[in-house]
Structure formats: structure tokens, C-alpha cells
Write a structure and sequence with these properties.
single chain; alpha/beta; Rossmann fold; 8-stranded parallel beta sheet; 3-stranded antiparallel beta sheet; 35% helix; binds fructose -6-phosphate
Length: 263
């Protein structure tokens, strides 16, 4: 389940390639997308690879994991703005097929339920991309979130607010709440890639590797997923038990063989 790559660049290369392969080989593709620093190189390489081959995006659907509550979509730190900046502005996805949770102040339970239902109406997510918070959150499912949760409004933990306030010039603008896909929505994806890069993720990745499924460590729900893999760079992997990890070459070799069979 844990694959160690030399750097974030090789992870981005692998993940963007897998995204393109799905678009080329499947009649329809539903992506679950994440934001944050970890995803930036992935989208950067996706854009470059997309430009080289320009496959049809007619049957591609994108659902984002989360959004802050109370930031207008045009606020530079909203996840709507992030997705425009890092992906949607550069790749002509059908905007009618791109969905982010609504982060308006009036966000409510009915809208949350509708977001989970919208994903189900598209047949569920094929490939879910995830980053991880230093407290183990995935999406904005903070420690203690029930594993059977659906899209919901969450009060962000102090740790998450501290970590993410780095993006805000005025720290007081850091939102207190967010809307996030629930853990159940996430693990219903056919395949999940959890990415972790940088030394600041080393401690939580070691905790994740040691853990069993435990609601106090939200990412540990992935232990129960038959098709979830964790991709780490060497820095994020520095505290892992290496005997339980595999090299990225094992993964790329297997995937290349599968892709060759499919063509
Ligand atoms: C963002 C998200 C979060 C981030 C996590 C890591 O859409 O769902 O769970 O993936 O907070 O953020 P970075 O990548 O900035 O370290």
C-alpha cells in the first residue's frame, strides 16, 4: 500500500499519467480532486501531458473534495479559485461537469446531501486524489469524524487552521468551517491515491502506517479500501518502516504492463 518515490516530481508524473490513461481508455471518467500544495505539481504535469495528446474530455466529470465556508468563490484562497488557477483555466473541461461543494455562508445540510447524491448519480468516483493533513485529515474530515459520514459542514480543528493559515496574508481571514465530502463518499471511490510530500508529513505518515482503522486518524479508513495506495516522497517516508513499503518502480512497472495490455 505504501510506495516511496524519490521526489514529488516523480509522484506527479505517475499520478498525472494515470489520470490521462483513464481519460483515454474509459468511456466515462469521474475524478475526485483535491487542492493544497501537494496537488500543485500533479495538476502542472497533467496540463503538460494533456496538451501533448488532447484526448476528448466530453465524458470527464470532476468533483472536488472540499471548500471553505464563508469565502466567496472569487477569493484567491477559495478552492474554487485554486482549481481555476491550477487546472480548470488550462484544460477545457466541460464546466457543466465540474463540481465543487458550495462554500457560501448559507451552506446547509440539504446542499451537502445533494452533493453526495450528485456523485452517486454519476456512478461514483473512479479515481479519488487525496492529500493528508498533519493531523491525518483527508478532505476536511478531522480526527473523530465518523467513518460513515457523507458530505457535511465541519468546524476546522486548531491544527488545520494553523497549518492552512500559511496561505492567508491576513490570518484572521482563515475560515473556521468548511464543507467536505464524507469519509464514506471518499472510500466509495473505485481507486484512491493518497499523496504525501515533504518532511512535515513524515510523522503522520508513520502514524498511518502503524495504525489500524481508527476514527481518530481519518486517513486510516483507507486500510479498509481494496484499491487505495499511498504515494510518498523520500522526505515524507523518512519515519516509515521500510520493510512494509515498496519502491515506486514496482508500481510503475505493474501499471505500464496493465496499460500495454489495454491497448
Ligand atoms: C484539500 C484537502 C486537504 C489537503 C490537506 C493537505 O482539498 O482535501 O485534505 O489535501 O490539508 O494539504 P497540503 O497539500 O497543502 O499539505
Amino acid at each position: 500500500m505504501f510506495y516511496i518515490f524519490p521526489t514529488a516530481t516523480e509522484i506527479a508524473d505517475f499520478v498525472s499519467e494515470q489520470m490521462l490513461l483513464r481519460i483515454k481508455n474509459q468511456n466515462k471518467t469521474v475524478f475526485g480532486l483535491a487542492t493544497g500544495s501537494t496537488m500543485e505539481p500533479v495538476y502542472e504535469q497533467f496540463i503538460q501531458k494533456y496538451r501533448q495528446c488532447q484526448p476528448s474530455l466530453e465524458q470527464v466529470y470532476c468533483f472536488n473534495l472540499d471548500e471553505y465556508v464563508g469565502l466567496p468563490a472569487e477569493h484567491p484562497q477559495s478552492y474554487h479559485a485554486y482549481m481555476q488557477k491550477h487546472l480548470f483555466r488550462h484544460v477545457p473541461f466541460n464546466q457543466q461537469q465540474v463540481f465543487l461543494p458550495c462554500g457560501q455562508k448559507t451552506a446547509n445540510e440539504a446542499e451537502c446531501q445533494a452533493f453526495s447524491a450528485l456523485i452517486q448519480a454519476q456512478g461514483g468516483i473512479d479515481l479519488q486524489l487525496l492529500g493528508i493533513g498533519t493531523n491525518g485529515h483527508i478532505g476536511f474530515n478531522e480526527p473523530g469524524t465518523p467513518f460513515n459520514s457523507r458530505t457535511h459542514i465541519v468546524a476546522l480543528s486548531e491544527q488545520t487552521r494553523r497549518d492552512n493559515s500559511r496561505f492567508f496574508a491576513n490570518k484572521n481571514e482563515m475560515p473556521t468551517h468548511a464543507v467536505t465530502l464524507g469519509l464514506k463518499d471518499i472510500v466509495e471511490a473505485e481507486e484512491v491515491f493518497l499523496l504525501a510530500t515533504g518532511a512535515h508529513k513524515a510523522e503522520i505518515m508513520a502514524a498511518l502506517q502503524r495504525s489500524r482503522s481508527d476514527e481518530q486518524l481519518p486517513a486510516s479508513i483507507l486500510h479498509e479500501h481494496p484499491n487505495a495506495i499511498v504515494l510518498l516522497d523520500a522526505q515524507a517516508a523518512q519515519e516509515l518502516d521500510r520493510s512494509l513499503c515498496r519502491s515506486y518502480q514496482d508500481l510503475t512497472r505493474t501499471r505500464t504492463a496493465i496499460a500495454e495490455k489495454a491497448t
